[in-house]
Amino acid sequence: MTTYFEERERASAPEREQALLGRLPAALKSxxxxxxxxxxxxxxxxxxxxxxxxxxERIPVVRKSELLQAQLAMRQxxxxxxxPAVSRIFGGYSAIGWGEAARVFASPGPIYEPESKRPDxxxxxxxxxxxGFRSGELVYNCFSYxxxxxxxxxxxxxxxxxxxxFPGGVGQTEQQVQAIADLxxxxxxxxxxxxKIILEKADEMGVKLPSLTRALFSGEAFPPSLxxxxxxxxxxxxxxxxxxxxxxIAYETPAREGLVLNEDIILEIVRPGGxxxxxxxxxxxxxxxxxxxxxxxxxxGTGDLSAILPGVSPCGRTNxxxxxxxxxxxxxTKVRGMFVHPGQIAQVVKRHPEVGKARLVVSGKVGxxxxxxxxxxxxxxxxxxxxxxxxxxxLTKLRADIEAVEPGSLPNDxxxxxxxxxxx
Length: 424
Prior knowledge:
It is built from twelve helices and 21 strands. α11 packs antiparallel against α12 (382-396). By secondary structure, it is α/β, with parallel strands linked by helices. The chain folds into two domains: 1-328, Rossmann fold, CATH 3.40.50; 333-419, GMP Synthetase, Chain A, domain 3, CATH 3.30.300. The two termini are 35 Å apart. A nine-stranded mixed β-sheet has the order 5-4-6-7-8-9-10-15-14, sandwiched between helices. Strands 1-13-12-11 form a four-stranded mixed β-sheet.
């Protein structure tokens, strides 16, 4: 049985770099022709002159917030241009339209992302393989199958491996336990917190789930303490890092030393808020250029912090490694697999004139996130607090406790989201 999903995972570093950068000019030309926003990003640049990593710094970084604003501007007709429907929806970044795209998804904002019909479009099959999944197995997928693409990310990856998928989705814990007991899947995909909940519910019910021996997690941090907890249950858990915009960025291998980059992407670590690449080892913002012909994002700033690790993974894969997710370069944070943006909290305040200022405090440990919205209100009536809670739920798709505080009591430091969780 081969150790690698593809032999190119152990290609020499110079060979890989030459192949990636050699494909870049043609990819840039194609993106410029089919995606108007990419043409604007490349304005004044000759794609044939972008052949090295230092050349990439001539391309402006586009951050997630700018992608959202571009989509909103086009959807609301604020650009003054008569654009095709697909350009309006995707902000001019997509190279494919209706019919060519198999699905379209929405992330908070909302930001809309296309999925093409290419097999393993999101690139997670490589991560599944590294986590021990193999053809002919049943994969129990507990990522959401509505709005966001996580469910499809894992399903298309499993299909690319030759696996069958059970779409477990989220919620209904007792039914999840029963289905796993009946179907005896070999592996789980989803957030680590939800699998922990399922296993603890199985304990309460007195049900054994011995078939689960491997898991691929994403959407949440996966600290060593939680990895050890699953290992004690006979489950080898691995993590993959990706986004709805870029697909899979990096993945964990049995070496358990950082995350190995996916093939077909060029990753830089840049100074947060800037565009200058940082030296190896320094912590900065993850910026990715993808060679995806359907959604060709160039120097896309994820807002995530990480650093490049020196050397090659002991598992034999030769691509660059990053330390993994190390927080956010801005105040945007991820709670139970969903991004929460400062702009969403601003929308809550706008809906309720009684609120002078608000701050979302995210606390707890991995797998038990707690959101508390501290709102400055002079008269904390029960109906008002219930209304604020409903607005948070609608705008973020997450529940939060509402804590009324005295007007003027929140710090005047510009902070809207305060993430105080422990990642130990």
